[in-house]
Amino acid sequence: MQEPSQPRKQAVLRSPDVPSVPWHALPAEAVLERLGSTPQGLTEEAARERLARHGPNVLERSRPDSAWKLLWRQIDSPLIWVLIASAGLAILLGKVTDGLVVAAVVVLNTVIGFVQEYRAGRAIEALNHMVPETAHVLREGHPVARPAAELVPGDIVQLASGDRVPADLRLLRSRNFQVEEAALTGESVPSSKHVATVAGDAELGDRANLAFGGTLVTSGTSTAVVVATGSATELGRISHMMEQTADLSTPLTRELARLGRVISGGIVVLSAVLLGVGMIRGYAFSDAVLVAITLAVAAIPEGLPAIVTIALAIGVQRMAARRAVIRKLPAVETLGSTTVICTDKTGTLTRNEMTVQALWTWRGHTALTGVGHTPEGQLLRNGRPVEELPGDVHALLLAGVLCNEADLQPREGRWGMTGDPTEGALLFAAKKVGLGVTELRERHPRLDAIPFESEHQYMATLHADGPEGAELFLKGAPEVVLRRCGPGTDRDAVLVEVERMARQGLRVLAFAHKGMALAEALRPQDVEDGFTLLGLQGMIDPPREEAMASVKGCHAAGIRVKMMTGDHLGTAEAIGLKLGIHSPAHPGLTGAQLARMSDAELAEAVKDTNVFARLAPEHKLRLVRALQAQGHVVAMTGDGVNDAPSLKQANIGVAMGITGTAVSREAADLVLTDDNFATIVAAVEEGRRVYDNLIKSLAFVLPTNLGLALILMLGVTFFPLQEAGGVREPLLAMRPTQLLWINLVATVTLALPLAFEAKERHVMRRPPRAPDTPVLSHFVVMRTGLVAVLMAAGAIGLFLWEFARQGGTGTVPPELALAEARTMAVNTVVSFQIFYLWLCRTLTGSTREVGFTSNRTVFVGIAALVLLQAAFMYVPFFQRLFGSAPLSAGDIARSVLAGACVLPVVGLEKWLRSRRREGGRSVSAT
After folding, report:
1. What's 350-399 look like in SS3?
2. pLDDT for 594
3. Of 615, 649, 683, which closes a domain?
4. Which pLDDT does position 662 carry in this prediction?
5. Cβ pair 21, 170 in contact under 8 A
6. Same domain, 92 and 187
């Protein structure tokens, strides 16, 4: 056939984020004409020409960052640059050992960050696995198999149950065609498809004449025409949105980066000042530079990146034990600052098991207890158990069993189901009241059936009823079934009941039957009229019981919960009401309503509205961004491809491990192995514990760095110069390598046990901390200054005392006397750290409150450091590397006593602070 004109060809091309031709609103004939195709398909020549113009049916993949770019990202930090400069200057000045040790620290921190980021997932790559390898197409009227990558707009594709849809298709013919679209639309049950046109403004989940690439055919057959391939498909549009989302920094990483800039700036200024002071006091230039380098090494918390990484890794292990798998380390801490959880409904808040809960017949209402895919439950009328199955209810349930394509099988002590979840719910309803599905079907053998199709919204089955009679059962949408019932049917009364059930979020099906003469096949006129209505069955995917308690826990912790689902609004509001998420005062919103809102209107709506339904991927992404614009830290849950962009945009993306697609898991920071909302709350609790313990680690680490800086500054400013080989040199209380020993070995060994501390009391009864809360609060700064001054005073005092004592005897060479004095200073600082560790186990209360032995790793850390410190003093290799010397038992005792003075001083400070806090509460109470 003749190819269409060039402008018509270009009509199928579109940017991933610009709407294309509304194929769902055009008749099938108009679609074929617009695409320049026929029901017999394209010619091979036309297909090749279009493939060259449109490109292959694959998703474009953005190139991941190169290894060099990742490596540079780890180095490009103010603290790292200061250390690199310090190492280089030390080597140039002849202090090769000191310079190499500092350089080794830089390499260690760089490798840790590089490995962590290099192993991060690549979300967009997973989208390609959703496109099948081959497709069945018609070329010049002949069915052929072609690689899915070679499909072009205008190709005619044939689909059957079990096929994965290879591109975006407009259906031309279909029979009982259903597609599992949960991954793309969030719809909890397979979508029934038809060929009739739908409204141009229909939402994605309501475009019933389209099949989208990457979805799965669950039943029936269809012939369809390709309307979009590759990046022009819905999958491609989602891929494009994911490229536009940014991996956000976490509150902790932002605060640590800011802290690093402050420390770096302060170090540069102080080093310059100290360089000037050294020159004024008569230091040689090389010695003055060495002093500045030593200050940088002392003040930079070199061990902090390792402490943070290891503490987060410990949090990862604890979360994994609670069925939450962290994919990106910073996500551990981000959970603790979460202010809003945006959650999917199906499978997360609900069981993802359709359950019949309400029955209605002409004799009244009947409730059916029990949830999920189990045959356990009972009938209730007026709240009381029904002892004997009423005839009207038996007839209603019988119709649900016979007019049904699903089946039940026992599996390992429990029941499994094959077929549509809605039909499976009807079978479990019958099992709950003791009806045998197999027995009923054997007693009423099926003769023929008209399968369910979206065009007519019903299913009919014909069954033998005696030697010459037959019985016809009808199941479908209430309004469709009512049109086929006799004139005596009170349609208004039935529709009132339908509306009542719908307000409860129930999906309602109507059932009817009629007798007829025995026949081998059903004719269309057999199902047109003459039916008697049997009743209604209402079903719902019930909420998880543990989800209700978890939502309450979130509210107590100051965390808002918002439901974002692809399901219908009425169902979402009903579930939200049961869970305590939805308030009738603030009605839910649909994706179509959101699309019409301006950014300002959306920002206002998102403050109070907690239920959002029928959402497309761009709606979820826009909602997450609106919440973030208001300063919220957003956790977003999801399981489908449609959730991937918002999962990536959220501060913390949470994917489902059981029902989640590979795309959603790759885009997320956290994966739930049990798909349970309660696990999210447990992870939030663990995140708050991790943050608390990181603050304890910071409060422990920073006084050491400030104390070491004070030791050097006071020494350079006030200590006399020493004579060595006729040259006047600065009298430093510690060498750079000794400072690194304290910063990397002693500090890290003692700080790590703090990561194992138990959670503080009421951790889930306090509001989330504000995202811009500084990690160095006024309290931590004051504590840091107090402990640093005590540490510096003790170390300097014992250093001068030991140096004067040893040097004054005249029997000890000056070099050995200096080495022993420096070792005394190091030992004193380490003693301070050991005693201060006990005080950091809880920053505000007494150690008795957390329990003396509740964290036994503290004892392990102290024991390990004692052994390492002994090696530092007495092993010759360490003496040569660090310039240390052995100390006597008396010297060690003096350094330990000096370190112990931190206990009463900080203990008094804690007591005074608690008294002031209690006094403030008393004043506010009065």
Report:
1. ECCCCEEEEEEECCEEEEECCCCCCCCCCEEECCEECCCCCHHHHHHHHH
2. 94
3. 683
4. 65
5. no
6. yes
Q: Are 439 and 369 in contact (CB under 8 A)?
A: no
Q: At what angle do helices 599-608 and 617-629 cross, to 10 degrees?
A: 80
Residue reference for tokens 């069915």:
143
Whole-structure pTM value: 0.70
**Same-domain check for residues 80 and 227:** yes
Which residues span the domain enclosing 626? 324-350+545-683
Length of the chain: 926
Radius of gyration of the chain (CA): 36
Does the structure show a pLDDT above 60 at 727? no
Q: Which of 361, 344, 363 is nearest to 352 (CA)?
A: 344
Q: For residues 609 and 584, is the Cβ–Cβ distance under 8 A? A: no
Given pLDDT bands bounded at 50, 70 and 90, which one contains residue 186? low
State mean pLDDT over 274-282: 87
Task: Kindly name the residue from 98, 155, 344, 891 that is annotated as catalytic.
Answer: 344
> Rounded mean pLDDT of the chain?
84
Coil, helix or strand at residue 147? strand
179 has which bridge partners? 191, 217
User: How would you class 474 by CB atoms within 10 Å of its CB: exposed for 0-12, middle for 13-18, buried for 19 or more?
Assistant: buried
Rounded CA gap, 343 and 680, in Å?
A: 10
Query: For 106-115, 390-399, 576-585, 829-838, which range has the lowest pLDDT when averaged over its residues?
Result: 106-115
Write the burial class of residue 533 (CB in 10 Å: 0-12 exposed, 13-18 middle, 19+ buried): buried
The answer for 489, left when phi > 0, alpha when psi is -120 to 50, beta otherwise, is: beta
DSSP annotation string for 852-879: TTS-THHHHHHHHHHHHHHHHHH-HHHH
- Answer yes or no: is 12 within a domain: no
891 is catalytic: no
Distance in angstroms (rounded) separating the CA atoms of residues 444 and 515: 13
Between the CA of residue 680 and those of 53, 628, 848, what are the distances in Å? 47, 19, 31
Sorted by sequence, the CB contacts under 8 Å of residue 816 that are 6+ apart come out as: 806, 885
Residue with tokens 């708050």: 688
Terminal C-alpha separation, the chain: 90
Residue 376 lies in a domain: yes
Count of domains observed in the chain: 4
- Contact, 27 vs 123, CB < 8 A? no
Enter the tokens of residue 263.
């420390």
Q: Report the DSSP beta bridge partners of residue 407.
A: 418
> H or E stretch including 703?
helix 677-718
Clarify whether residues 695 and 654 are in a common domain.
no
Residues 6 or more apart whose Cβ sits within 8 Å of residue 826? 734, 738, 741, 742, 872, 884
Tens-place pLDDT, residues 784-797: 999 999 999 999 99
**φ and ψ of 257, to 5 deg:** -65, -40
Q: Are residues 671 and 533 in the same domain?
A: no
Each as own residue / partner, the long-range contacts of residues 104-108 (CB below 8 Å, 24 or more positions apart, any chain) are: 105/302, 105/740, 105/744, 106/75, 106/80, 108/306
473, containing H or E segment: strand 469-476
Asked if residue 27 is part of any domain, the answer here is no
For 355-366, what is each residue's pLDDT tens digit? 999 999 999 999
Cβ–Cβ contacts within 10 Å for residue 298, how many? Answer: 26
Strands 560-564 and 340-343: parallel
Give the integer Cα–Cα distance in Å for 844 and 444.
75
Nearest to 854 by CA among 706, 753, 705: 753
- Residue with more model confidence, 203 or 808: 203
Q: Which among 668, 683, 698 is the end of a domain?
A: 683
CB atoms within 10 A of CB 93: 16
Q: Where are the beta strands (DSSP E) in 229-378?
A: 324-326, 340-343, 355-361, 364-368
